[in-house]
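A quick word before the example. In earlier lectures we treated sequence and structure as two separate objects. From today on, think of them as two lines of the same record. Here is Sugar kinase written that way.
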Amino acid sequence: MSDDGTRPARVTPPPRVLACGLATLDVVQTVDRVPRPDEKVVARDLLVAAGGPATNAAVTCALLGLDARLLTRVGDSPVGRVVAGDLARRGVEVVDVAAPGASPAVSTVLVTAATGERAVASVNATRAADDGTDARAVDQDDRVPDDVLDGVAAVLVDGHHLDLAIPVARAARSRGIPVLLDGGSWKPGLEDLLAHVDVAVLSADLRVPPDHAGDDDGTDDGDLAAVARLGPGVVARSHGGDPVDVLVDGRRLTVPVAPVAVVDTLGAGDVLHGALLAWWAQHHAGPDAADASATDTAAGLRFATGVASRSCGAGGAHGWADDEHALAAARAELTGGQAASGS
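And the structure line, produced from the sequence above:
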């Protein structure tokens, strides 16, 4: 009881999300232009931060006020400690299953100041079987901690570390937890993961290989249909600032993207996936998650593309959150259901 005899308002904890996939150390330099062969240029700015699709998605969820958990491989190397420290500072719980002595990959990123375009060099998860395993050894569920899904409302997988992603997605589906895919590129074994995915959002670059495309012609529409046949009830493809193409229950639609003066496109796709994960956890978690309607899907994508557009208007994947008003507006839209009502 409070001093005036009334019961204090009950505070509902925020939803918990799990992102499973790649963690890297990103070294980002802003330049006037990408150097030509054998040329050096002076960078305008330097940013060193944790990166990777699933990692950026988890950070986005934490910024939006959710309880964010990341299942990945970081390790205890000096590079790994930098990544772990950055994620702790951003409020992301890391479940690290790296082998002793492992180290995350380093991504070198050049951002062109005038356009916000980026050039990236990274070895990603191919650096190693950093624990000596084959990334396609997908039936070894003992790699995944038993309690990693406890309290989780929605899951995102990014196609990396398939030996973690497939058991997680399979277990999540068995519990009625919706599973989202960040489909940045086609990776060997992705067809096995798609069998356990509810919502797949593809990049403009992903193309389904002929042996999985069936009779489809390799066009955008063909790729959406091919991926849908592999499992997801909702398949979408982003195109930067152009509308998002969506296929849901055989119905095709497009979702417009808010225009923005581009400062930096780094991580914008990851932010989109993280914001959609947050929206799904907030508005569409539970046993009916696989039955999302076209209206539900469009509402979630409108919210997610709005956050991604904000990220393009600031430096780095999460520079937009330095604007307290923009962050507060995004959180209010998420928790207030404005995106779900289409406003």
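Notice the following. The chain has one domain: 16-337. We will return to this example when we discuss secondary structure assignment.
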